[in-house]
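Last lecture ended with a question: if I hand you only a sequence, what can you say about the shape of the protein? Today we answer it with a concrete record. The protein is SAYSvFN domain-containing protein. Below, first the input exactly as provided, then the predicted structure, then a couple of comments.
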Amino acid sequence: AMQSVQQQLEEYRRTRKAAFESGKHGGDLTNSTTNGRGSTTCGTSGPTNNAEPSRASLFAKIYQQLDDSQFIRRYRTFRASRPWSYRAAVLIIWLCGLKLFASVEFGSVYFALSVLVFIYANLRSEPKKRGEVSAYSVFNPNCERLPGQMTAEQFESELLRRNAPKRS
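The predicted structure:
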């Protein structure tokens, strides 16, 4: 059984490598590269030396299959149609879990993990739209800033003007 799994894995890697080399790998997912000092250079997509496709595409396929499951569709329909019932159910389940973990003296661990899950659940769920800029200029092509974004130079000049003595 183990050898058949290994054979399937080798076949999968060969087909992925052939698709990658023929240019059907879905494009480069990175928009920035790192130089030798570990800092990021903006807006460049340097050559990749990967002989195999990135794991991001594999995880994207797994996520897509999970996303299309019947359970997930029912869950999203329930969550969208009855938001207060959904929130009440989540709160009740969370409180029961907290009571259970507190009884075995793991309440603080449960709370800390719950905070991490809450943060993860409230991150962006859709991929970034084409042309949408990031709030962090280092992730944008040519390090473009958002309109109205304050820079260190602007802050410094405003600070110096405020403290400068008024001239008559």
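Comments.
1. The CA atoms of residues 125 and 156 lie 37 Å apart.
2. Confidence is low (pLDDT under 50) at residues 25-41, 43-51.
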